[in-house]
Amino acid sequence: MRHIISTLLENESGALSRVAGLFSARGYNIESLTVAPTEDPSLSRMTIVTSGSDDVIEQITKQLNKLVDVVKVVDLSEAPHIERELMLIKVRATGKDREEMKRMAEIFRGRILDVTDATYTIELTGNGEKLDAFIEGLDRAAILETVRTGASGIARGERVLKV
Amino acid sequence: MEISGAEIVIKCLQAEGVEYVFGYPGGAVLVIYDELFKQDKVKHVLVRHEQGAAHAADGYSRASQKTGVCLVTSGPGVTNAVTGIATAYMDSIPMVVITGQVPTHAIGQDAFQEVDAVGITRPCVKHNFLVKDVRALAPTIKKAFYLARTGRPGPVLVDIPKDVTLATCEFEYPDSIPMRSYNPVIKGHPGQIRKAAQLLLEAQRPMVYTGGGVVLSEAAPQLLRLMKLLGFPVTNTLMGLGGYPGTDPQFIGMLGMHGTYEANMAMQHCDVLLAVGARFDDRVIGNPAHFGSVPRKIVHIDIDPSSISKRVRVDVPIVGHVPDVLEDLIRQLEPQISKLDAQALKSWWAQIELWRARDCLRYDRASEIIKPQHVIEKLYEVTGGDAFITSDVGQHQMWAAQFYKFAKPRRWINSGGLGTMGFGLPAAMGVQLANPGATVACVTGEASFMMCMQELSTCKQYRLPIKVVNLNNRYMGMVRQWQQFFHGNRYSESYMDALPDFVKLAEACGHIGVQVEKPADVEPALREAFKRKDDLVLLDFLTDQTENVFPMVPGGKGMSEMILAEEL
Ligand SMILES: Cc1ncc(C[n+]2csc(CCOP(=O)(O)OP(=O)(O)O)c2C)c(N)n1
Q1: Residue A90 · residue A121 · CB < 8 Å
Q2: Which residue from B395, B405, B401 is spatially nearest to B371, judged by alpha carbons?
Q3: Is the pLDDT of residue A77 over 70?
Q4: In this structure, which of B2, B80, B145, B263 has its CB flanked by the most CB atoms within 10 Å?
């Protein structure tokens, strides 16, 4: 099963490699991993999308907690939560495709950030499925480049992850 | 007054009450060595190879409960120490490793003797630090000691660039360091402890299985009280030996791959299992699916939540400091102890005695060639069962574990988790330094011994009167045994054709060496050796080359699927 795990960790050099090293050493999957400092600059927030049986996920959370730099760990998938990912995509926009691209971006509530005679660069946010759907909806040949951030997540309602 | 980083390092070690540092100098740590030279509170033990430094610090810690310290230079100094660090990590030994590093401005430049010490050791330390600012040095060393010895203990590495050892700042050693990200749970959950007590009271076929956690957390007295209260059978893992007195009738031997028949059968057939400070590893319970195929309730007490339900699902997990949890459990059980099913226990013990009667450790006592088991039995007698025994890895290690009945914790010192050949001699140095005047023996095999035999020279320098018991079968015996059982007697590279003369080797290093060939000479040779309180004596026993360790649970098999001696 797919899980989205959020952790707060000390904003120390090396903290990221401890997490990445843990996942590779113990053979856990990483679908995506995002990390950036929080409003408290001494803390980073990391979101890891992973998958595994219940036993594996239990071990992942325990092993993460065991890392000395990790302050808190929650499995967001245990309760209602919001997930967002950002994608920047550069597409060919020539001839009749130019208008079509613009319409697609509008349907998906994307924003065109940069324009040339031949290309559009579109920004799109949403959950992973929405971004996948956008890509699916395009002619493959029209896609010049994509870059995705991986998912970030937060709990719905009043639950917060804080120290 | 501002002092240098190097002086800060030494002042921190003094503040921690460090008695010995095991180390080896080099460019990146010269400034620290210079400060070591200027004082005499912290004594330095100069090993002959950095692996030896790490093992010696580790052995020192295992035998004393204190945190072992080692100091090595950058680059090859660090990489040589890695085996020793990983050995300590696998067995949860508190250790602080101080490593020199190239100057901060040279880091990342492929400088001479540069290696990413923090990166290389990350998977085999509890935590590690690179100190880039001299002002962070004292707090970091404080953290290192705190992390190493609390919670589930382990090695912590502090990497110090050379310019940081030269830089100066005010020195203050903090009393404590708050760490919001590190708060090991100490107290067991009362509700869980109640549940555990209930299960134990209802048990028909109970079993208690304890590991290194009991030894490391100093829980042996509580364990003994609990066992006397319950009257249940108890087994120890290889790491847990001595955690429960090996001579007590409730003790049914070590369990696992080379555990006793009775211990492994009782593990497999019990209905309630209490696991304490142990981790159900592959050499202990064999195939987890086979183990899980029998219904039983499991209570698991451990300081490390990630050890619980890792390989085997448990019913009542209790995270906490083992002595405290056992204390709470005893308090729960005492008033209701009469609820135990005496009848059921009696028939369970009768079953265990039947298993015990198989006498699974039997060997040919009439042999005209020295049997290794005989040497260990005599070693036990001659030392009155009260020696510190270190070992290397192989058959000799298993025989020592099976035949030396450890009565106290911290007396059996071996590399259980990593299985590091070469551990025995340097570990014995640390053990002897931690216990001057005590009897220390290193049970080894000729192949293991040669992995760190350069430390014989260190033993001379520091006058460490260790007794080396070399069970010399001219084979990598454990490898040969597997090749015999599982690889059609093809003894691929497990025979060493050109062994040194161990007697001369001992003599070359300034020690006494004795070769023993006949069974009748085993005991006199041991007695003679142990009489020499001030000398290292290497006893080279030429043992039966074909002897195997029994019982044996083959890899991937279940605990009750043992091969016994008589079946071969
Ligand atoms: C550093 C290291 N290399 C290889 C092994 C694999 N190994 C395990 S036991 C063994 C043979 C040990 O031979 P010896 O020390 O003579 O002991 P014996 O089994 O004969 O008692 C080997 C090679 C190991 N445990 N450690």
Answers
A1: yes
A2: B395
A3: yes
A4: B263
Burial bucket for residue B105 (CB in 10 Å: 0-12, 13-18, 19+): exposed
CA atoms within 13 A on the CB side of B494: 20
B500: left (phi over 0), alpha (psi -120 to 50) or beta: beta
Cβ proximity of B99 and B73 under 8 Å: yes
- A10 and chain B in contact, CB less than 8 A: yes
Question: For B181, which of A14, A62, A70 is closest by C-beta distance?
Answer: A70
Cβ atoms of residues B514 and B503 within 8 Å: yes
**What DSSP element (H or E) covers B165?**
helix B162-166
B113 is catalytic: yes
Tokens encoding B141: 């060393």
- Contact residues of ligand 1, CB 6 A cut-off: B 392-396, 419-421, 445-448, 471, 473, 475-479
B279/A35 Cα distance (integer angstroms):
33
Write down the pLDDT at residue B80: 98
Cα(A125)–Cα(B219) distance, integer angstroms? 55
Question: Average pLDDT, whole number, for chain B?
Answer: 97
pLDDT at residue A133 above 70?
yes
CA distances (Å), B2 to each of A122, B14, B42, B131, in order?
57, 18, 21, 18
ipTM over 0.90 threshold: yes
Task: Give the C-alpha separation, B457 to B444, whole Å.
Answer: 17
First to last CA, chain B: 73
pLDDT-derived band of residue B567, with 50, 70 and 90 as boundaries? confident
Total Cβ atoms within 10 A of residue B351: 14
